Amino acid sequence: MKKRYTSLLPLFLLVVLADFALAQDPHLAQFYAAPTFYNPAMAGVHVGKSRFVVNYREQWNSVMATTPFRTFAASFDLRQRVGRSDYFAWGMQASADFAGRSNYTRQSGALMASFLKQLAGGRYTRTSQYLVAGVQVGAGQHSINFDNLWFSSQFDLSEERVDFNAPSGEMLLNATRPYLNFNAGLLWWAIFDDNFSLYLGGAMHHLNAPSISFVDNAEPYEIPVRWLGQIGGELPLSREMSLLPGVLVMGQGPSMIAMFGSAIRYTNRDWNEVALRFGMWGNVVNDYIAPKAFSNLTVSTILEMTQWQIGISYDVNMARLAAPTNNRGALELSFIYIQPAKRREKVNCPRF
Questions:
Q1: Which of 67, 187, 262, 308 is least surrounded, with the fewest CB atoms within 10 Å of its CB?
Q2: DSSP assignment, residue 160?
Q3: End-to-end CA gap in the chain
């Protein structure tokens, strides 16, 4: 009897995770390497002329070996000077998230724009201070593959098996209608000296309260507003080393997550600068399953090479997820390319 109930654990996890996938937006552990994915005001906040970012995350391999959750994100943003010391930035953001055996898919794309207003500093000084406001306007759609699912009406009691050829009795759509989406954010930062900075920001996603439904003529499900706040900076330890602490707190509906930690950065201080980061980040969640639980510990490393940045991280599951997943969490990769700016177009920006 015990073995029979134990065999239901993967099914229970699948149901819980599928419900979580419907109710919550996907997230990335390397929030510092996915700037516009979290805050539209991050558009144009980099030292170059333009920036190209790609992120990939794979999760739940330990319980869903052939159908783990996968998240892809990509963005491009370009900054242009306006007036003497202000800037306008624009770009594009896209993401796709695939969850579980049903291949529950969330796709979204958006155009984004931001305005960078200088509050203090100058072109020939290290110190500077900026306030940025950004928006994203785009569309999204959810879809699901019902061919990989079965319903109670398809279970043959006499043979104790599922008859996939039997009618399901369900009137479900393979995809929701596309919906309009609107996000907005603010960011303030100050550069005090070389390797010494501070930033503070916040954003709101799904401000227009979009809704989705897989059933015709049924009351749609409203995607909850997602809010976030972030703070971080860089603290110098020596000429070659610095700390990059950061905190991001995000909530949506009944759930909330706080990601916090720090990376230590070492640079060779050469003309063709090469830098290496190693970081540890904790995750605390608050939802209807595990209130205020330390869900996982993320270990990350990043290689910086002049115009390139390559990152890799791994989540080690903790608390209630530790035993059923053997502590195996998520693998995440990030890639950033920054096109150099001309001297007159450079902006002193903080490192994230």
A1: 308
A2: T
A3: 52
Number of other CB atoms surrounding residue 152 within 10 Å: 8
Instruction: Encode pLDDT of 266-291 as tens digits.
Output: 998 877 889 999 999 999 988 666 56
- Answer yes or no: are the C-beta atoms of 300 and 244 closer than 8 Å: no
- Closest Cα partner for 225 from 19, 21, 23? 23
Q: Given pLDDT bands bounded at 50, 70 and 90, which one contains residue 148? A: confident
What does the H/E/C string look like for 178-204? CEEEEEEEEEEEEEEECCEEEEEEEEE
pLDDT in tens, 90-124: 999 999 999 877 788 999 999 999 999 999 876 66
The set of residues, in sequence order, having a beta carbon less than 8 Å from that of 165 and lying 6+ positions away, is: none
> How many CB atoms within 10 Å of residue 72?
15
CB 141 within 8 A of CB 179: yes
Amino acid at 4: R
How much is the pLDDT for 288? 61
In this predicted structure, what is the pLDDT of residue 36? 97
Cβ pair 137, 113 in contact under 8 A: no
Q: How far is CA 352 from CA 100, 231, 244, 276, in A?
A: 32, 10, 7, 13
Rounded CA-CA distance 152/172 in Å is 15
The domain spans of the chain are: 9-345
Phi, psi of 240 (to 5 degrees): -105, -15
pTM above 0.90, yes or no: no
Alpha helices in 7-136 (DSSP H): 9-23, 35-38
| Eight-class DSSP state of 218 | S
* Contact present, 188 and 201 (Cβ < 8 Å): yes
Report for 11-25, 57-71, 260-274: range of highest mean pLDDT: 260-274
> Please, what CATH class does the domain formed by 9-345 belong to?
mainly beta
CB proximity list for 57: less than 8 A, separation 6 or greater: 26, 28, 29, 69, 70, 71, 330, 331, 332, 333
